[in-house]
Design a protein that fits this description.
Blueprint lengths: L1 H39 L2 H28 L5 H14 L2 H34 L1
Helix pairs in contact: 1-2, 1-3, 2-3, 2-4
Length: about 130
């Protein structure tokens, strides 16, 4: 039974590392496409890739807190890989950002900008 457990652990580790490798390749592709968008000065393309990075970063931040639970979810590495692929190739970032994230990020930005201004004002006063 110990050998079976080791094999299961190795299988899970392989799936995890393979998914991480694919996700890193997708990020390199997204970085390349972002670079091309910046060089072209095409507003729509820039918007698309900026939305990708906002959604992807938000996902990474959420995953930071949930990773210990998600790691044990069956097929999590594959689902994560598919989700990032959806964001990169299927316009998933636009489908998530505009209807679901934009209003919440706007609230957060206002809060952060207010706090940054307070800190700047305090440091100037000293």
């Amino acid at each position: 039974q110990g050998i079976r457990k080791m094999a299961e652990d190795r299988g899970r580790a392989f799936h995890f590392w393979f998914a991480q490798f694919v996700i890193q390749c997708l990020c390199v592709w997204a970085g390349y496409k972002s670079y091309l968008a910046l060089k072209s000065s095409d507003g729509e393309s820039m918007k698309k890739w900026l939305q990708f990075w906002v959604v992807f970063t938000s996902f990474c931040l959420l995953e930071l807190f949930l990773d210990l639970l998600l790691y044990y979810m069956p097929f999590y590495p594959e689902l994560k890989m598919a989700f990032v692929g959806f964001l990169v190739f299927a316009g998933g970032a636009e489908k998530i950002y505009e209807p679901h994230m934009e209003k919440y990020i706007g609230i957060t930005v206002d809060f952060v900008e207010k706090k940054v201004k307070e800190v700047k004002d305090k440091t100037k006063a000293q």
